[in-house]
Amino acid sequence: MDPEGDYGHPVLGFDVAADRVVLLADPLVR
Fold first, then answer.
1. d(C-alpha 5, C-alpha 17), whole Å
2. Residue 3 · residue 14 · CB < 8 Å
3. Which of the residues in the chain have pLDDT under 50?
4. Positions of E strands within the chain
5. CA–CA distance, 29 with 24 (Å, rounded to integer)
6. At a CB cut-off of 8 Å and minimum separation 6, what does 26 contact?
7. How far apart are CA 26 and CA 20, in angstroms?
8. Among 1, 26, 3, residue whose Cα is nearest residue 15
9. Cβ distance 21 to 15 under 8 Å?
10. Euclidean distance between CA atoms 7 and 4, whole angstroms
11. The predicted structure's pLDDT at residue 2
12. What is the rounded CA–CA span in Å between residue 7 and residue 30?
């Protein structure tokens, strides 16, 4: 749970799951 994320995701990558990042980018996707 690093703010930078080793997955190449910025602060948005708060979770190891890339799906979480997508939700932040587009909450309407839910």
1. 10
2. yes
3. 5, 13
4. none
5. 9
6. none
7. 10
8. 1
9. yes
10. 8
11. 52
12. 22
